[in-house]
Write a structure and sequence with these properties.
The protein has 8 helices and 7 strands; from the N terminus they run H-H-H-E-H-H-E-E-H-E-H-E-H-E-E. With 229 residues, the protein is α/β, with parallel strands linked by helices. The longest helix has 22 residues.
């Protein structure tokens, strides 16, 4: 199983990027951050589609939810890093695990997975996912969905919570007893009403902040395990 990479020490080489003509200062800062991000470097080295793969690897080490034979839905799947990890950890090539992802952005499905392009907030999305799965229930519903940020923290929180709630209600319909719902939220945690619903329907609910999340990022994840059915 892939391990979360260690961050380089202070003696590690640091790449500086000069602001080129026509490039905004913010773009230069983004490029410099990418070039010096140990998780970006590790993703390239280990063949993952994104650094986000290490967030799921780390959270799975704590939760133990991705095992051979389990079926997984991945919402907000682009660019495919979580689908790669899910297929790897469930040994989907030989275990019979089914991995199906959906996102607005079209991607090539990683090996041993299925991908659907579409907006999960559309009415037909759940039925499309069910048809692709070919099974009535799944073991894990993952959601890394996030809206484009507006820069206004309260608005961004409401938008991401709307997506989290949509994914949560889908999980209530799709999960097997004992199943898991894992979704991205923002700092401040899951809203009290939704959190209370989760506590009623799952045996354990907690928030996780993977080390692979960027420093200063407002994202946090909510993990609801042991679906009561």
């Amino acid at each position: 199983m892939a391990k979360t990479p260690k961050k380089p020490g202070s003696r590690g080489l640091h790449t500086r990027v000069k602001t080129a003509r026509g490039r905004k200062t913010s773009s230069t800062r983004w490029l410099q951050r990418q070039l010096n991000d140990p998780y970006v470097q590790a993703a390239k080295r280990e063949g993952y589609n994104s650094r986000a793969a290490y967030k799921l690897i780390e959270m799975n080490e704590k939760l133990g939810i991705l095992k051979p034979g389990v079926h997984v839905v991945d919402l907000g799947a682009a660019p495919g890093g979580w689908m790669q990890v899910a297929a790897q950890l469930t040994k989907a090539e030989s275990s019979g695990s089914i991995i199906v992802g959906m996102d607005l952005i079209d991607i090539s499905a990683p090996p041993h997975t299925q991908f659907l392009q579409g907006d999960f907030s559309h009415d037909d999305a759940p039925e499309r996912l069910k048809e692709a799965l070919g099974v009535e229930k799944v073991d894990v519903v993952l959601s890394d969905m996030a809206p484009n940020t507006s820069g206004h923290a309260p608005t961004d929180h409401l938008r991401i919570m709307m997506l989290c709630e949509l994914a949560y209600h889908f999980s209530l319909e799709m999960l097997k007893p004992g199943g898991t719902f894992l979704a991205k939220t923002r700092q401040g945690g899951t809203e009290a009403g939704l959190l209370e619903q989760m506590k009623q329907n799952f045996t354990a609910v907690k928030h996780l902040k993977p080390k692979a999340s960027r420093a200063g990022s407002a994202e946090v994840y909510v993990a609801a395990t042991g679906f009561k059915g």
